[in-house]
Design a protein that fits this description.
There is one protein chain. It contains six helices and no strands. By secondary structure, the chain is an all-alpha fold. α4 runs antiparallel to α5. The protein is elongated.
Length: 153
């Protein structure tokens, strides 16, 4: 017999939330690429020895923070709907949530720096830390979707 993800006993609200959670897969790439671009731009500013905060980096982080919240919430709903298993889900879920908070904090620090017109090393470190952490969290999501052999040569 086939196993159904949504048994009849589940309420319409629960089924709707599980369905909405599937949109995690549609929006997750946007905040990832924005954080990566912000880190690359900040790295370029470091290379140029600039102490001024970049308006472009700030805008990237603000937009990323606007998308990271629904991405995290939809990810939790998607997992609650029965998608993802085991250690990969555990690491993806908790790293993704942690990075979500870090991106919000980083956007706030960047905004403060823009208003002060001076880039702090705390904000700079948060920007540069966000990129590898978001990539690492995404890696565990990719393992769930594509399997552990996806990148084998």
């Amino acid at each position: 017999t086939a196993v159904t993800l949504w048994p009849r006993e589940v309420s319409s609200l629960t089924r709707t939330l599980w369905w909405v959670g599937k949109f995690h897969l549609l929006i997750l790439h946007f905040p990832i690429v924005l954080v990566m671009l912000a880190a690359v731009a900040e790295g370029w500013a470091i290379w140029k020895r600039s102490v001024l905060p970049s308006h472009e980096v700030n805008v990237l982080l603000i937009i990323a923070s606007l998308f990271i919240v629904p991405t995290v919430v939809l990810g939790w709903l998607h997992a609650w709907g029965g998608h993802g298993l085991g250690d990969n889900l555990f690491w993806h879920r908790w790293l993704g949530t942690t990075v979500g908070f870090l991106v919000l904090l980083t956007a706030g620090l960047s905004e403060i720096d823009c208003r002060r017109r001076s880039r702090s090393w705390v904000a700079r470190g948060a920007i540069l830390l966000s990129a590898p952490l978001i990539a690492f969290a995404a890696h565990f999501g990719g393992l769930m979707v594509h399997g552990k052999d996806f990148l084998d040569w």
